[in-house]
Amino acid sequence: MNKRYLSIEQVDKTFTRNNTETHVLDKVNLSVAQGEYIAIIGHSGCGKSTLLNIVAGLTSATSGCVILDGKEVNAPGPDRSLVFQNHSLLPWLTVYENVALAVNKVFKHTKTSAERREWVLKNLEMVGMSHALTRLPSEISGGMKQRVGIARALAMEPKLLLLDEPFGALDALTRAHLQEEVMRIQNELNNTVLMITHDVDEAVLLSDRIVMMTNGPNANIGEVLDIKLPRPRSRIELAEDPEYNHYRREVLRFLHEKQKKVETIGARAAVGPTKEVAKSAAQR
Amino acid sequence: MTVQVNPEESRIAALSLPSADRVGAEFKRLGHWLMSRVFPPMLVLGVLLLLWEWLCSQPGAALPAPSVMLADTWELIVNPFYNYGGNDVGMGWQVLASLERVAYGYTLAVIAGISLGVLVGKSTWAMRGLDPLFQVLRTVPPLAWLPISLAAFQASHPSAIFVIFITAIWPIIINTSVGVRNIPEDYRNVARVLRLNGYENFTKIMLPAAAPYIFSGLRIGIGLSWLAIVAAEMLIGGVGIGFFIWDAWNASQISDIVLALVYVGLVGYALDGIVGFIGRRVTRGTAA
To answer: What ipTM did this prediction achieve?
Structure first.
């Protein structure tokens, strides 16, 4: 197996705004093998989203590069599909049409229209949304929207699946339920996944490796933790598992002792651009 | 004596019972709707008409009372589509002639307005260059354009259409550009990840995302066109509801003017309703 299916090499990112430069990411290096599930965890403002956006190609790195399957990434593309926290479904399209928009574009020349239709239905079935094909996003719950978002991302058959706090906006029960679904789907498809999260349990439960980032500015990878729990994993059995709790403790120790976040207004301003600023900077 | 009950009959009775209930419920709902939605405006209208009748029946009243007006214009009301040649045609034809002008001018305004709006929304340079111009020109009253368009076209018909065009275009441009500029980052990211080309991006992301804004511009535009056409026709003459009003004024037929105003109001209301309806259908309820 290719240990360097995805490699992030010396990625540096500086945002410039009103002549003040903010060095968000400082020479980040990471290699990911094919089929690996990576969770990136860190305090807010540490540049996790920026890193993910660079891998997605939505933001360009100031220096350094991202290589996926032997090719350099410098623009967004369907080989790296994204699931956003706020689902980003198009509100004027139905559940089916949202997925079909992606499928029809990506497989325009490689599948017949009947095959594409079949493929859309198969992916929606996989996330358990077959019952709501003709619903608009405004007519379904937050958890369902996220399911459709996941189906859309999976339907593109990406080389790399990027999840940006995919369950962050959901209530705890729905989140747990979706995590199970993602684990089941991951067992089936064995995708290469990069997931950003704030949730320690989610990181330990889902991933093969947890990448812990230091606080920004000048954020970097602080520690990498291998999660050697056998799959399939069950959250109920793991709750008592000493190994699971050891991993949990390791991550918590990193977040709350080594990288303790001091939240003050001055510090926040010093950290630099908020997400909105970063986004508008990315557009320029 | 034994009563023979036809089994067929009793079944019908049993079947019709719940449906009778449903009819009753339906009537109840209809009655409720009439009471809550139709009755209040009717009541207010009735009171106003009575007030008008009373005021204009006083000695020395300058305007006709509703009863007088109805008697004066009865011919026009019952016969909207007569044609005695020239300008002497029924109210239906007058309104249709005005609507035809509005249709031409408004259609041109929609095409040009949405195109320019997309350009201004997409390109910062176009916005900086054109926006000040638009902001100044949109404050020019519709009728102020009439002399210059008469001078340019040398004919009344295209001039009227131009006035409609220039009146309706500003809200369409401005709303479209705001809509295009406010397309959420997420939708643009979807387009970028899927690598939609320019045409796909325009039809699948940009237009639907901006549609609620565009339709509010279209709605303001159709209202302004209808306002402008009545005024423009007063000056250019020919068949049309605006000139009908002016003609009636010159002939001192005040009742005809009142009738024309009722027509103008109802048609304007219908136009607004039609554009609003199309907007709701197209945007699937996401528009205001």
So the answer is: 0.81
